[in-house]
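Query structure, 229 tokens:
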């Protein structure tokens, strides 16, 4: 590789305080560890996202494809200041969220993908990706757009986000801002979790990101809802 040219193609990296992991007790009583991962986790995360690429239900395909590209771009040093948090129960991956810092004041929310349904896993992970920049990185506002009706209900309506003028980086629908003020007003209601994570739980999560096989991932995303129809 021509490292001189490569150095020009790689975006600069803003140092970020690490996100302190937390544990959330889900409605089933299961303990979900929420933690930050670095680039080395990307190949396994891509494997988890791949089965969503052909699930049109609830826009999993669109969100999965975009998340896949963003994670790969981060892995190959082509996206600036991205961060990624994951949820794990008993080591198994339950969801992925990512964002990127745009400036010392502003963070761009990218994607939220829940690999299990009906437990607000996506909502909890979204809350964590707001908590990180607003509470730990000194960011004033996170910019958010939605690609799915469930996403719109979860973010714009549940948080009461403020509409903003112009376009979001994702180039989709009108976008909204989550300011520090809105975040702290919603925090008790929407941001869950305890710290520190008990050492055995954290060790289990960090030891391995376990994945269900493709059929199981699919079943967990569409199965329960399909049966209810
Ligand atoms: C948006 C998303 C992250 C929300 O995750 P979540 O908070 O865990 O919520 P779920 O998707 O499990 O459930 C959302 C609603 O649909 C219902 N639901 C949908 N599919 C379900 C299923 N298979 N089993 C049980 N409930 C289901 C839930 O009961 C819930 O209802 P509620 O809003 O009244 O609580 C998740 O739906 C997702 O990953 N969607 C695809 C990608 C996406 O749209 N991302 C956001 C882009 S803006």
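Result returned for the query:
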């Amino acid at each position: 590789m021509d490292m001189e040219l490569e150095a020009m193609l790689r975006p600069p990296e803003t140092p970020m305080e690490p996100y302190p992991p937390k544990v959330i007790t889900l409605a089933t009583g299961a303990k979900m560890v929420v933690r930050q991962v670095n680039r080395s986790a990307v190949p396994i995360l891509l494997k988890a996202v791949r089965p969503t690429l052909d699930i049109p239900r609830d826009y999993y395909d669109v969100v999965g494809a975009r998340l896949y590209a963003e994670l790969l771009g981060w892995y190959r040093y082509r996206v600036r200041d991205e961060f990624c948090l994951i949820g794990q129960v008993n080591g198994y991956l339950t969801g992925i969220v990512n964002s990127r810092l745009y400036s010392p004041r502003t963070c761009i929310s990218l994607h939220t993908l829940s690999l299990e349904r009906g437990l607000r896993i996506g909502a909890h992970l979204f809350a964590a990706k707001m908590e990180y920049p607003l509470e730990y990185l000194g960011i004033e506002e996170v910019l958010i757009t939605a690609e799915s009706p469930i996403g719109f209900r979860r973010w714009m309506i549940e948080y009461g986000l403020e509409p903003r003028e112009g376009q979001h980086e994702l180039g989709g629908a009108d976008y909204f801002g989550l300011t520090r003020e809105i975040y702290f007003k919603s925090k008790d209601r929407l941001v869950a979790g305890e710290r520190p994570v008990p050492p055995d739980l954290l060790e289990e999560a960090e030891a391995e990101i376990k994945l269900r096989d493709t059929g199981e991932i699919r079943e967990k995303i569409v199965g329960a809802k399909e049966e209810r129809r």
